[in-house]
Amino acid sequence: MLLRTIIVGAGQAGFAVATRLRIKGYDGEIALIGDESDPPYQRPPLSKKYLTGEMSRNRLYFRAPDFYADNRIELRTATSVEAIDRHDRSVRVDGMPMPYDTLVLATGARPRRLPASIGGELSNVYYVRTLADIDLLAPEFRPRAKLLIVGGGYIGLETAAVAASLGLSTTVIEASPRILQRVASLETAAFLRRLHSGRGVRLIEGAGLKRLVGEPRAVAAQTNDDQLLETDFVVVGIGVVPETRLAVAAGLSVDNGIKVDAQGRTSDPSIFAAGDCASFPHRGKYLRLESVPHAIDQGNAVADAIMGSSTPYTAKPWFWSDQYDLKLQIAGLNTGYDRVIERAGARAGTASFWYFRGRQLLAVDAANDAQAYVIGKRWIDAGQSPEPNDLADPLKPLKEIAAH
Fold first, then answer.
1. Long-range contacts for 24-28 (Cβ within 8 Å, ≥24 apart)?
2. Buried-most residue among 21, 96, 106, 116 (CB within 10 A)?
3. From CA 23, how far away is CA 74, in angstroms rounded?
């Protein structure tokens, strides 16, 4: 009797698990179940090249549709898993049990939504996560239209960059004292603030949203300090929530994500989790990462564990953000930093921001500075740190700085 692995979630992590299993020689049945109508696709271009029409829908897909049949992967799109029965080792789909030997939860995350009581469900309020979200949003992107973006994180700023480039009148409001408050330094935020202000984006920091005004469409936003901002439509980018509802209902251990061990196993040894939904051990703590590289790497690690590997997954965090002609590349995690060193790049408009805790290098933000990113990532992955004073010396070339 053939073994069967069921993967719930057909995003980057779920796709990685399915394809890695076949590459590693898994001969059992594989079912990849996704609740969207499209086959697995890239998400980063959605709010950029796909929104602007530079990339077609088909080009977003990881593989052509016949790839799945050719590799004996049963792809079920537009299908929701209703529940997990751990006792019978089955999931319920369309009211019917579907048995598994191994189950992988790659359910991702969902956008945080504004409360309906302040207008979060009005017809021109949009949340950016899926192809369907962008298809609904795209017709609003008309030159000179007034766009209000709620949230000054990376999603909000990336959306602002696209909107400003297309000629929309763009305003970003951020409830925290500054943009990128939780994820980047004051120095990185100041760099990006100058970038957006120079493109005509209005950034209002320290101003939370009190309510949206209008019915059925928002026509204005009232901030907590009673500014009234006119708008034609609203994009909300206030973070995401790990999708753990199936896991919670099944009684799995959940703590800011589905809690897994170093091989991706949940509290039930026949169930794994990977990607945005998973909380995994990292340097003595539990961590949840939201990035494409992590989804791929952890998905691969889970597939390896299913195939019998006992090698622990070691995250090497890196991220990127595209805004206008800027590529911001980030290596490492800056949690707990106490010092930031800013270095100007070799060309105008380029820079790097180096995060230290004491003398330990934690992370680097490289703005159109590929050399800084490559060197910084190499140091961080190797657990090495340069002398902070060497980095702070603008006359000392980066490639001549040693790290230990």
1. 24/303, 24/304, 24/307, 25/307, 26/303, 26/306, 26/307, 27/2, 27/3, 28/2, 28/3, 28/4, 28/101
2. 106
3. 16
Residue pair 256/267 in contact (Cβ under 8 Å)? The answer is: no
CATH number for the domain harbouring residue 359: 3.30.390.30
- Distance, in Å, from the CA atom of 276 to the CA atom of 257, rounded to the nearest integer, reads 8
pLDDT recorded at residue 1: 62
Asked whether residue 101 falls in the same domain as residue 117, the answer is no
Task: Report whether 229 contacts 223 (CB < 8 A).
Answer: yes
**318, part of any domain:** no
Spell out the alpha helix ranges (H) of 75-147: 131-137
Last residue of a domain, one of 210, 236, 262: 236
Same domain, 132 and 182: yes
Cβ(365)–Cβ(371) under 8 Å?
no
Low-confidence ranges of the chain (pLDDT < 50): none
pLDDT at 346: 78
Instruction: State how far the Cα of 13 lies from the Cα of 297, in Å rounded to an integer.
Output: 8
Model confidence over 43-101: pLDDT tens digits? 999 998 999 999 999 999 999 989 999 999 999 999 999 999 999 999 999 999 999 99
The CA distance from 179 to 188, in Å, is: 10
Structure tokens at 258: 């589905």
Query: DSSP string of 193-239?
Result: HHHHHHTT-EEEES--EEEEE-SSS--EEEETT--EEE-SEEEE-S-
Angle at 328 between CA 361 and CA 346, to 5 degrees: 80
**Domain that residue 134 falls in:** 113-236
Residues 6+ apart with CB under 8 A from 18: 7, 30, 32, 73, 303
Give how far Cα 328 sits from Cα of 36, 297, 352, 398, Å: 30, 21, 9, 18
For 382, list phi and psi in degrees, rounded to 5: -85, -5
Backbone angles phi, psi at 126, to 5 degrees: -120, 150
When the pLDDT of each residue in the chain is averaged and rounded to a whole number, the result is 96
- Assigned token pair, 235: 């994009």
Q: Distance (Å, rounded) from C-alpha 250 to C-alpha 265? A: 15
CATH code where residue 153 lies: 3.50.50.60
pLDDT digits (tens, 9 = 90+) for 206-218: 999 999 999 999 9
Please report the DSSP string for 380-399 in residue order.
Answer: HHTT--B-HHHHH-TTS-GG
Q: Is residue 314 part of a domain?
A: no
Its pTM stands at 0.94
